[in-house]
Amino acid sequence: MTAARLVARCVRGLETVVAAEILQSDGVTVTRLGHREVHFRAGASGWRAASTADDVFLLAGACPDIGPGREGLGALAELAAAVDALGVVRLRERYTGGGALTGVEVSASFLGRRRFNRYDVEDAVGPVLARRLGVGYHSRRSGAVPAATGGGWRLAMDGVRASLMLRVGERPLHRRAYKGITLPGSLHPPVAAAMARLAGVQAGDTVLDPCCGAGTLLIEAYLQQPGSHLYGFDLSPAAVRAARRNAAGAPAADTDRLLIGDGSPPPVGWPGGGVRSAVPISVEQADAGRLPVPGGVADRVLCNPPWGAQVGAGGTLAGDPSAWWRELRRVLAPGGTAVLLLPGGGDIATGIGHGFVPEHVQRIRLSGAQPYIVRFAAPGR
């Protein structure tokens, strides 16, 4: 199969994590890291679905960023007229087996202040693509929901260049099929996947999430390492129900079907693909400050603690936030690892004050905030 130019879009701060995951596929070359983007090439053997990416696109073409003025919109229309739109659509069909596009919709994004809005960009590019493909164009300006077209175009400008792309899958990669229930504070699945990768979960490890919410971290950990033992706890009965429901709807891990473009059915983790089965995750209601488990039981702890950004602390933690850190120290085995999403540097200092040693600190941008993904080593390592 002809090599393709691809772009993985991701949460700001995860670019290197996404690149490392993509490079696990044979024959893949990363060609550029940008703002929330990883550009890469894949050949005949395809590539593994990137769990840490928000989405993956085929790159149709690029031109210099048009700058802040509206007068540059014509250059974007020229870009749409110059690319091999039909060739990109056909390549998408060959890679994923998806049906032909029956329409065009475009999503635009750009960095910096401009004298135009995203709809101006979309309406400059979309009609040109639609005419070239002989289909209709749906403008997003009115807010009306488009008819299903089997794909979506994207125009992204980062201050240096404008990239025109076509989504590989039928829907964004971050929209996991298993996530039937979302709660306030639910973790973005690619961020959860990045945290699980950073934890280095091994077969046979006991993995614990003291504040599991809708279960995203544990499910992503399972998809990476199905041989692990996964336990979640949450004070909220609604969260326990959500985590159990989501785990029951997650795809079975099947490492033989992760390649895209090798002629096999859509892979596990790719929207719409994979065999579904109940994931072996135990979820129970419990106070994160008093977990019903023996000391030193957890090889890995993965957690997005409730420090009040979207979900307030309850139970023991409401009156004594430091109880969370004491309990983490109690349940984590000597030599164990905790990977946490923390809202600020002061929280990292608190962890250090309780004897944990930070081994990796990575700042990301998520929902307008800039939290830290931190990997701590257990005291005594």
From TrEMBL:
Keyword Transferase attached: yes
One GO term of the biological process aspect: methylation
InterPro entries: RlmKL-like_Mtase (IPR000241), SAM-dependent_MTases_sf (IPR029063)
TM annotation in the entry: none
Gene Ontology molecular functions: methyltransferase activity
Pfam families (UniProt xref): UPF0020 (PF01170)
Residues of the Ribosomal RNA large subunit methyltransferase K/L-like methyltransferase domain: 176-251
Keywords: Methyltransferase, Transferase
Keyword Repeat: no
SUPFAM superfamilies, per database record: S-adenosyl-L-methionine-dependent methyltransferases (SSF53335)
The name this protein goes by in its record: TRM11 family SAM-dependent methyltransferase
Taxonomic placement: Bacteria, Bacillati, Actinomycetota, Actinomycetes, Streptosporangiales
